[in-house]
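Q: My collaborator sent me two sequences in one message, no labels, and asked for predicted structures for both. Can we handle them in order? The first one she listed is below.
A: Yes, handling them in the order given. First sequence, followed by its structure tokens:
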Amino acid sequence: MSPSKDTESVRRWRALLASERDAAVLYSRLADAESGERQQIFRELADIERKHAAHWEGKLRAAGAAVPPPGKPSLRTRLLGIAARQLSTGTVLPLIERAEQADASVYDEDPDAAPGMAADERGHAKIIGRLIEGGRPNPRRQIGRQEPWHRGDRSGALRASVFGVSDGLVSNTALVMGFAGSGTSRTVTLLAGIAGLLAGSFSMAAGEYISMSSQREMYQREISLEAAELAEKPEEEHAELVLIYRAKGLERADAERMADRIMADRGVALDTLAREELGLNPEALGSPWGAAVSSLLAFAIGAFVVVVPYLIGAILYFVVREPLHLSCPQCGRSVNPHFNFCPGCQFNLRPTCPQCRRAIRPEDRFCPQCGFTLASNAPSAVGAQKG
């Protein structure tokens, strides 16, 4: 082995040694936070990590390299240990499981790893997964964790979001274009668009909530009826399960054995009948609140797209363009600089030059077109009473 490769191997062994020591400390702290069988499982995991660490210590000694003494646990290990002690191990196990899955193949292609180390690392993730399930694994959840690329909408929120965006765009576009085509001002059109956004959002949310609640109640009623049939007529439900599995291709004897095992647990039997006979997933009957909130936000986003041009125009008109702070020359009332007449006394705030008839401002002393002197005529030359 060349000196450069030997140095690289020593550096890698030390990194693996530190990782194994850190894992051993983490499992020891988890064991301190548990009791009974779970505590024993964590202690066994810690012992396995110590054996792995001892392997890398031996590699370093064989190479004539110094074995670093155990150092301070990493910040991650300390934080997970505190969370497990103050809250529960269940709060940190999902994080540990993801880390174990990421490190499961760390020794697969490592020629320096001892036999069985790769299998130990892969087994850790499975053990943590079983501990998360509380000793009774849920196959669907385990498969979901192993194959996180599968996604499904169980609450109805995705469907509500798609409909909400579409309705927001179409309905608010029709409303805004109707106001714009009628010749009203941009401000009125903008206010109409915002009103349509708010009204439509809350209307869609209320409709989705009522619709999803009704659907959920109907599904729950079907499941409750199936539970009553299972309690009153278990033989008939057993026969239905046999027929279902025979229709799936099982032999009669195999279908009856499977139905017997399912019927031994009423909870499993009800779940299976709901899925196989009713076509319902008891864990995904829909969330009324999830659908309502998704619909509200989606409609608001779609409707907001329509009013964005008018909103930007209003900002540019009233903010970017620096307004003049005017007061009515006749009644002294504060007046929006874009008004033509005073709202109080109807005084004409947009008079014209007596000579060239160009529109002038009340504070102008000279006509910007012909240079006519206006100061001597103010305020009579500046404006006149409307009418």
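Q: And the one she listed second?
A: Here it is, processed independently of the first:
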Amino acid sequence: MNPFSITMIMKNEEKYIDKFFLAIEKIFDGYQYEVVINDTGSNDNSVEIAIKHGAKVIHSEWKDDFSFSRNLAVNEASYDTIIVLDCDEFVTGFNPEKVFPASPDMIGRLRIRNFFVGSDGDDSYTTYLPRIYDRRYSRFEGAIHEQIIPMNKALPKYYDADLSVDHFGYYGKPEELAKKTEKYERILLSSLKDNPQDPYTLFQLGQNHNMMRDPEGAIKYYRMGMSMNPDVSLEYVRMMITSLGNNLIRIGRPEEAAELNIWSEKLNRDADFLCMLGLAYLRTGKYMESMQKFLSALAAGDSKTDGASTYIPLYNMGIINEILGNKDGALSLYRQCGDYKPALEKIRELI
């Protein structure tokens, strides 16, 4: 396997940086690689910890532009093959035979599990983000939620790399998240001013309001993004539709969430979307339609949100069986939910 450079940007990450290095040193033991960090003004022990682990650290001024800072780090790398990570991301799995591309103009997507504190406690969802590329063919563009773009401006050619990461950037104290979301909001609104019809920026604004625990704001930006008629085959657009529905359900407007059924034909294998629709129909008393969507979610396979293709549909199908007076059927479904706490509580109530 060819040598590679791990590049990242950093500011005051002493909370995570040591654990970050311990993870990559374990996973990449025996392989030739380096870590190049662009520090944008740390005043804690982040730089000292990184240097202790053998990283190459450069320093630059923060300019409210993630791509600018990432590209500076990449320019200082010794190798052309780049893996981009953040300090709050910990590598958990790696298959050297399936990580790097067959062709250097391809861009690899990592499997990233994002942890956060939801309304019912700790939760997570999974995304696949472009993070592996050859710097001779591609570079970062975009001030925030930056994207890897081919230098020849051709459409990106993606592949799914067999490299998994746990991300804890959305998992923290409210005051820590507030600082992060305020910075993101400022940069995103500046980007939107330059390109007011960009659905991806509108999606990211919706995501930022999700992190702020502001469903009304998230709904506003998701609706604006969808009004631009983006390509539903794109992963972020599918996430935008599903997140719009989940936020509508969250604030007691499931009837509007159920209207998103218009996308069912194009999203008929998307477990997260189908599970959202199942919840919308359940909250509006349409139990048979709800059951159908939950069954489809179970059959869809992998989901981004933990449980959306397993215990969440099973649990809600149990609820429907209870409502319809089928106690035995409800118990059977709850028992298939594993250690899902709401299901365990239901079992205790019914036996």
